[in-house]
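Take a record:
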Amino acid sequence: MKWTEITLRGVQPLQFGGKRVGTVERRETGDRIDGLAIHFDAGPHVELRASVDVSEQLECPRVFVIEGAPRDAFLLFGGEKAYWLTSDGAVKAESPLFRKWGEEEFWTMRILDHGSGVVVIYEAGVMAIDEALQVRWHKLKLLNDQFVALEGNVLKFARDDDAEWFMHLEDGSTPQ
């Protein structure tokens, strides 16, 4: 699997499979600043709401493009929703994250490569994605649960009170 972070400073190229397939640009609509316009070189234009990471901790808004085994589809992460798109401009699916509008000051996102998939750790949740771009599991976590380390097949987190807890990568379970 491959993932790429795109910093949204004006119009940026959208790469997929090692080739440019279009451009991306952040869009503001109404009272929201987290929209994304994608102009595919094949012609289609897609507007995605709640798709851009506008964390107050970032210098510039961003999105992540995750590529897996399918040669015609990719996953886009950033805002309150994840989107599955085809390389020719169709939205295949979308999924809400546990991320909430109004909590942008807490937004964080980190992607870890693990085995044949990736794990997306963000301020309010953890999602494991396999090489077919399928969600293996998606679990809620608290805003103050900070990722500490990947230890084998276990994610280690710490809370404000220094209490540690763990999450198994196989199924997202948390042993007691």
User: Anything to note?
Assistant: The first strand starts at residue 2 and ends at 7. The chain is about 0% helix and 55% strand.
